[in-house]
Specification:
The complex is a heterodimer. Helix content of chain A is 60%, strand content 4%. Chain A is built from 13 helices and 2 strands, in the order ααααααααβαααααβ. Chain A has helices at residues 4-11, 21-34, 45-61, 66-73, 89-95, 99-108, 110-122, 130-166, 194-213, 226-251, 264-292, 300-319, 325-328; strands at 178-184, 336-342. The mean pLDDT of chain A is 78. Chain B is of the alpha+beta class. In chain B, strands 1-3-2 form a 3-stranded antiparallel β-sheet. Chain B starts with 5 loop residues before the first helix and ends in a 7-residue tail after the last helix. The model of chain B has no long low-confidence stretch (mean pLDDT 89). Classes of the chains: A mainly alpha, B alpha+beta. At the A-B interface, helix 2 and helix 3 of A face helix 2, helix 3 and strand 3 of B.
């Protein structure tokens, strides 16, 4: 058989995900070539279509989902993300050393969010609002250098961290001397009752708004500008989107098993945390109103909290149990981990010493 | 339990004959189905991935022959049991249908 069918088949290898090309890609090419009649001078259309189908099918089943990729992108020394399920370790091993992949992770991390927000608002700003300009300039001074520093010095540290969390060698390759398995890590926080958190937040945010909007105590020194209105509405819409996101999580809550934190300490912590959070949200409500010039926006955080309380109560009735923080923010609960152990033999135990008589 | 898809079932039966690589599996499947089922690379490896993920088959070894990679697969114990169970269920359905339709070979 001439090399022409093989060359044509190899040209279609790009359809397979990069990390599957050496095995699955070559396997599929080998099968297609074996099925050709002896002496075939070229790759028939049917064989090409078969190979294309195999490549697209491999792409569909051998590409990790958004959650896995987001976990890797958002990994940092301040959280415990970055651990992928064992079946995706080979994928990660081919990606982690790729500069393009590292920059794509940077693009998905939190720094660009600050930059995008700054660029969006600064496009609306005029010279009549020096406070906003100063704030946005500060964000640009922090965000852009932060991204630059990450690109220069943070990338090797990020790569080393990802490799350590997934049992990969320092150069990103799979280690032959380890046994890896899927495991579950320790949760970041206890599974506090979320109704207590939201209820206390709703109770405290209202009085904070009333107090701060009072003419004697309210913030009246800001002048409402067109840019201010844009920023105020933008942040209010962002809050609503976040609330919708949390509401959807509450509505889709399912029983995830581990026992929730109960007892006076848990309820107390939930109440204090919720109350403090409600006060902060009430303050931000007043800020929205002051910056945008729309007084009703001051009640937006309180309205959102009351809505969430009602949703949680309905979900608890549906599930016949208390909802915990892990149900709403699953990232706070036990996370999937790769547990890996070196296969090398352990050194022999120290020789026993005779007991003193 | 719902019946498996035909390509997956035929692959399981083909692997019951021992360790096979991809081309060997397609030849056995074609023989089992009297030439009716011809597996392409997309169908074969999609089905093999599902079988390996379900624990019914496993990849054993790889070798390179004439510059082409060949990876061998074999049934696991679970896969063997599942192939037998699937065959019994299909036979039962076929017998009942043949009896219903008055075809030769159906139960009296």
């Amino acid at each position: 058989m001439t090399a022409r069918p093989e060359t044509s088949a190899q040209r279609l290898l790009w359809l397979f995900p990069e990390w599957t090309r050496p095995v699955r890609g070559q396997e599929a090419i080998g099968l297609v070539l074996d099925q050709l009649p002896a002496g075939a001078a070229r790759l028939p259309l049917r064989a090409r279509a078969d190979l294309i189908r195999a490549g697209l099918q491999a792409r569909r089943t051998h590409t990790p989902g958004r959650k896995v990729r987001a976990d890797v992108a958002l990994a940092s020394q301040f959280n415990s993300r970055g651990s992928v399920p064992v079946r995706w370790r080979p994928w990660l091993a081919t990606k982690v050393s790729s500069r393009r992949f590292q920059f794509r992770c940077l693009a998905r991390s939190r720094w660009p969010a600050m930059l995008y927000l700054s660029l969006f608002a600064i496009g609306r700003v005029g010279s009549d609002d020096p406070y906003i300009v100063a704030t946005l300039a500060f964000l640009l001074v922090v965000a852009v250098p932060g991204m630059g520093l990450w690109a220069l010095s943070g990338r090797p540290r990020w790569r080393a961290m990802i490799c350590a969390r997934n049992g990969l060698a320092a150069d990103g390759n799979l280690r032959e001397d380890v046994v890896a398995r899927d495991a579950v890590g320790v949760p970041a926080v206890a599974n506090l009752p979320v109704l207590a958190v939201l209820g206390c937040a709703a109770i405290t945010s209202g009085p904070v708004v009333v107090l701060m909007m009072h003419p004697l105590y309210g913030l009246t020194y800001m002048q409402v500008t067109s840019a201010g209105r844009v920023v105020g509405w933008f942040t209010a819409v962002t809050l609503v989107i976040l609330v919708v996101f949390v509401a959807l999580r509450i509505l889709r809550a399912v029983d995830r098993g581990p026992a929730r934190a109960t007892g006076l300490a848990a309820w107390g912590l939930a109440g204090v945390g919720g109350g403090f959070g409600g006060g902060v949200l009430g303050f931000y409500g007043v800020l929205f109103a002051d910056v945008s010039g729309v007084g009703a926006l001051s009640l937006l955080p309180c309205a959102c909290l009351v809505t969430l309380v009602l949703l949680v109560a309905a979900a608890q009735r549906r599930l016949s149990r208390l909802l915990g923080l892990w149900d709403v923010v699953s990232e706070l609960g036990p996370q999937a981990r790769v547990q890996w152990l070196p296969q090398a033999e352990l050194p022999p135990p120290p020789a026993a010493r005779p007991l003193a008589q | 339990m719902a019946l498996m898809r035909e390509p997956s079932y035929l692959i399981l039966v083909a692997l019951d004959g021992g360790e096979r690589h991809g081309y060997g599996i397609t030849l056995d499947v074609s023989e089992l189905s009297d030439g009716r089922v011809k597996l392409g690379a997309g169908t074969l490896y999609g089905a093999l991935d599902r079988l390996v993920e379900s624990g019914l088959a496993e990849a054993t070894r790889s070798e390179t022959v004439d510059g082409r990679l060949r990876r061998y697969y074999q049934l696991t114990e679970t896969g063997g049991a599942r192939a037998r169970q699937e065959t019994r269920e299909r036979l039962s359905i076929a017998r009942a249908a043949a009896s219903q339709l008055g075809l030769a070979g159906g139960a009296a």
